[in-house]
Amino acid sequence: MVADYQGGWHQGGVSKLLQRSSLVPYQGVLIFRLEAREPPAVKRRQFITLLGGAAASWPLGARAQQKLPTIGFLGADASAFAPWTAAFVARLHELGWIEGQTVAIEYRWSQGRTERYAEIAAEFVSRSVDAIVTVGSAVPTVRHATATIPIVFAVAIDPVGSGLVASLAKPGGNVTGLSLQATNLAGKRLELLREVVPQLRRLAIIFNVGNAQPVLEMGETQAAARMLGLDVAPLVIQRAEDIAPAFEGVKTRADALYVAIDQLMVANLTRILTLALGEGLPTVFSTRDFVRAGGFMSYGPSYSDMFRRSADYVDKILRGTKPGDIPVEQPTKFELVVNLKTAKALGLTIPESFLLRADEVIE
Question: Can you tell me whether residue 33 is helix, strand or coil?
Fold first, then answer.
């Protein structure tokens, strides 16, 4: 209803008045402007009522957009993480979360520098993201920044042993995710490596001593190596600048290289692979993505699959489930992957029986 020019009320007044008006943008605000002078009979309060009614009928795009649920994604390197982020986003889409339409994702990359974790975590907190997805090694720093924003780790070596969660069944707090841990997984990798590198007597293990997750993996691998009668040569690094010096003279101390993966390794993967190949060392990894990049062999769960599954955790959280009530999952499927091109460059011949057991052979 609106006052007509004679002071009465009728239904057609709104359309007539709007025909003689326009919406004008001014400093980000749409201003309602009449093309003619306001009729004397339309009192100020009545005119304001009319304006409010017209604003209610504006298209949704003319109003302030509602904030989308936002996910903060913390990784090491955009290129190295590409297959994992693709798997994560694809699963979100299947669950009804379409990036840019029903959900926003803020990607941040540490470039393998753990000191950036705190800076990125603080930014996520200031932006009030609704959930944070990352890897196990970053969780302690991110959790220090927030005890309320849900945190999902897509991969973690020993989430209970490293204090990320209270238990697998009842994580508690604001953290949950997926564990890489499985019984004697490091030992199985070394057994497979020895099948194709029969001269294996000495094993170098490169790991980031400044990160609790790879330190745990190094300890497990060292114990497994000793059970198999292998001598261990630790290659201790903490920064990208430590990588090249760690390889000096390594050929005289090792027959193969085990890479304990973390964000520092991911961000410097090409450098590590180049140095290892230059020293003639076969490399063994925890997942296939690094073998596709030029590594020799991997055995373990698929990181792409784990990042995909982490989207299910985010979906539950965005729909109201508390992270502490979502159990941590452990891997059930393990993949053996071999890169024949790298084997040829190293002068290794892989038995046909071994190749038949592989889930993927890269040629």
Answer: strand
Residue type, 347: G
pTM for the whole structure: 0.76
Q: Do residues 290 and 321 touch, judged by C-beta distance below 8 A?
A: no
Q: Which residue has the tokens 């997984």?
A: 185
Q: What is the domain extent for residue 77?
A: 70-181+304-325
Measuring CA to CA, which residue among 349, 334, 229 is closest to residue 286?
A: 334
pLDDT of 345 higher than 50 = yes
CA-based R_g, the chain, Å: 29
**Claim to verify: residue 294 and residue 200 sit in the same structural domain:** yes
Which string of b and e fits 94-132 if b means at least 16 CB within 10 Å? ebebeeeeebbbeebbbebebebbeebbeebbeeebbbb
Same domain, 250 and 340: yes
d(CA 58, CA 46): 19
The stretch 236-253 carries a mean pLDDT of 95
Q: Which two tokens stand for residue 234?
A: 């630790």
Q: Are residues 355 and 253 in the same domain?
A: yes
> How far lies 216's CA from each of 19, 163, 209, 210, 265, in Å?
72, 12, 10, 11, 15
Q: 213 is written with which tokens?
A: 């997750």
Query: Could you give the CA distance from residue 18 to residue 58 in angstroms, rounded to a whole number?
Result: 12
The secondary structure of 65-119 as a DSSP string is PPPPPEEEEEES-TTTTHHHHHHHHHHHHHTT--BTTTBEEEEEE-TT-TTHHHH
The pLDDT of residue 8 is 41
The answer on 189 and 156 residing in a single domain is no
What does the alpha-carbon distance between residue 47 and residue 18 come to, in Å, rounded to a whole number? 12
DSSP helix/strand/coil, 273: helix
Structural domains in the chain (count) = 3
123 and 234 in a single domain? The answer is no
Q: What is the pLDDT of residue 199?
A: 92
Asked if residue 230 and residue 146 are part of one domain, the reply reads no
Crossing angle (nearest 10°) for helices 82-94 and 303-318: 40
Q: How far is C-alpha 138 from the chain's CA centre? A: 11
